[in-house]
Design goal:
Elements: E1 37-43, E2 46-53, H1 58-69, E3 78-84, E4 87-92, E5 105-106, E6 114-115, E7 133-134, H2 135-151, E8 159-165, E9 170-176, H3 179-192, E10 200-204, H4 210-219, E11 223-226, H5 232-241, E12 244-247, E13 255-256, E14 263-264
Parallel strand pairs: 1-4, 7-14, 10-11, 11-12
Antiparallel strand pairs: 1-2, 3-4, 5-6, 8-9, 8-10, 12-13
Helix pairs in contact: 1-3, 3-4, 4-5
Length: 267
């Protein structure tokens, strides 16, 4: 009769004798690490938020943030965007109030905005549109955008947001310490260049949260893909907004969570 074998308890803080010695690298500086800088945002002279961001593409960032908050609908709403001493002053071609779309739903962004949108309460998805993307083309696009980011000079630890326009086959990427800021930079660039987002896919290096889906919905983006996962609230919001979410997009376990008809898996 075999005797039961019980695991041997190890004292707390003691290394198991069969485990290899842990290896560490020692850093003597901060060179190459992402930089976080505070940026205060004023809209028509009223302080609205302070973002911690990578200090690059700041005009795109604040325009994208204002667009996501509902202060602007297009570049025509912008009178001026000025920067001085860590402050962004945005003047609009109309009066406040603004930001009417963000009030009820606490989001995961650093600005802790509140969202109020009829889309957030929809359970019945909209009717199908004509935006369908071949699966092989989407997978290739995701890989291309990640390759572009790896080859860029972005600091280690930065997130990126990439866009593929399937109408023109053009691509663009922006990076930031925060994936929310990177997305705002990308959408702000689209607003400033009057880009139509209708046939585009947003590709993210980090997880998809509900506020990122909301930003995509505001812009008219139809597909949001990530190498990571998504939150349950993001899936609910995407279902009502008609947005297709693709998670683990770089892996064999890639998963479509909403509106799978938009991805043509036969091509």
């Amino acid at each position: 009769m075999k005797r039961a074998v019980h695991p041997v308890a190890m004292p707390i803080g003691r290394r198991h004798p069969e485990l290899p010695e842990p290896a560490f690298q020692i850093s003597t500086g901060i060179s190459g690490l992402p930089v976080e800088s505070p940026l205060a945002i004023e809209v028509n002279g009223v302080p609205r938020a302070t973002l911690l961001c990578t200090p690059e593409a700041l005009e795109e960032l604040v325009v994208g943030w204002c667009f996501g908050q509902g202060f602007v609908e297009s570049v025509a709403d912008l009178a001026s965007v000025r920067f001085k001493s860590g402050r962004a002053a945005i003047m609009l071609n109309r009066s406040l109030p603004g930001g009417h779309d963000w009030r009820e739903q606490l989001t995961a962004g650093f600005d802790a905005s509140l969202a109020r949108s009829p889309i957030a309460k929809l359970t019945t998805p909209p009717e199908r549109d004509g935006v369908v993307v071949p699966a092989n083309r989407l997978i290739a696009s995701v890989n291309e955008l990640f390759d572009r980011f790896r080859q860029s000079n972005a600091p280690l630890g930065n997130h990126f947001a990439g866009l593929h326009d399937f109408a023109s086959d053009a691509q663009m990427i922006f990076h930031d310490f925060s994936r929310h800021n990177a997305t705002d930079k990308l959408i702000g660039w689209g607003v400033l260049t009057k880009l139509s987002f209708e046939r585009t896919a947003l590709v993210l290096s980090g997880r998809i949260s509900s506020d990122l889906v909301y930003k995509a919905m505001r812009a008219g983006i139809k597909i949001v893909a990530t190498r990571a996962l998504t939150s349950a609230q993001a899936v609910r919001l995407a279902q009502g907004a008609g947005i297709t979410i693709v998670a683990r997009a770089l892996d064999a376990e890639r998963t479509i969570f909403t509106h799978p008809w938009r991805i043509d898996r036969n091509h």
